[in-house]
Amino acid sequence: MHVIIDWIVQTVGALGYLGIFFMMLIESSIFPLPSEVVMIPAGYLCAKGEMTLWIVILLGILGSIAGALINYFLAVKLGRKLILKYGHYVFFTPETLEKVELFFKTHGSFSTFTGRLIPVIRHYISLPAGLARMNLGLFCFYTGFGAGIWVSILTFLGYFFGQNEALLNEHLHTITIAVVIFIVITAVIYIWLHKRKARKHRLKKL
Questions:
Q1: Which of 103, 113, 132, 150 sits most deeply, having the most CB atoms within 10 A of its CB?
Q2: DSSP one-letter string for the chain
Q3: pTM (whole model) above 0.85
């Protein structure tokens, strides 16, 4: 782990801000490069005065959006055709695809935002959004919003605790749990508001 982190620090230091953008682009696409090994070392370099904090965060967000857009357009161009042709081999039927599309048309914004905060899921949340052809402006906004929160957390962790691996791991674990709790609470509120809105809509029809 030390070797990987040292390599990331050296790579980011050598490539500068452009390295952060491209590494976060890779992280946000289908390649499972953890954002922790990019943004935390970048935050540490900010603490050393070798980079500017707000530029690092901005490029981390832009890289995340760029990578997410790659997945989005891959799903738009290839995903539907592949699923309709080969989906039955993995029990993914055209009816299931229709349900996914309907779900993202109704809940795409919320799913995209919260998905960016969940490990593993954030790498792939763009694919169902692309399949459902979610509004591109909303997709970019909520991807950037969710990515912005996570990128900022990691960058500040690197800034304050980059030299102390024990403290870094402890705080990262605590923050990850806090983010999951936040998502659960947000999801409960969202579902309640959605059901309330649907109930009011039904009453207006009566």
A1: 132
A2: -HHHHHHHHHHHHHHTHHHHHHHHHHHHTTS---THHHHHHHHHHHHTTSS-HHHHHHHHHHHHHHHHHHHHHHIIIIIHHHHHHHGGGGT--HHHHHHHHHHHHHHHHHHHHHHTTSTTHHHHTHHHHHHTT--HHHHHHHHHHHHHHHHHHHHHHHHHHTT-HHHHHHHHHHHHHHHHHHHHHHHHHHHHHHHHHHHHHHHHH-
A3: no
Contact 48, 56 (CB under 8 A): no
Render pLDDT for 141-168 as a digit per residue (tens, 0 to 9).
999 998 999 899 889 888 887 666 666 6
CA distance 206 to 191: 23
Cβ neighbour number for residue 55 with a 10 Å cutoff: 14
| Domain ranges, residue 175 | 2-205
Rounded to a whole number of angstroms, the CA Rg of the chain reads 19
State how far the Cα of 11 lies from the Cα of 159, in Å rounded to an integer.
17
Of 85, 74, 91, which is closest to residue 131 (Cα–Cα)?
74
pLDDT, greater one: 171 or 135? 135
Q: 71 near 127, Cβ under 8 Å?
A: yes
Cβ neighbours for 36, distance < 8 A, ≥ 6 positions apart: 154, 172
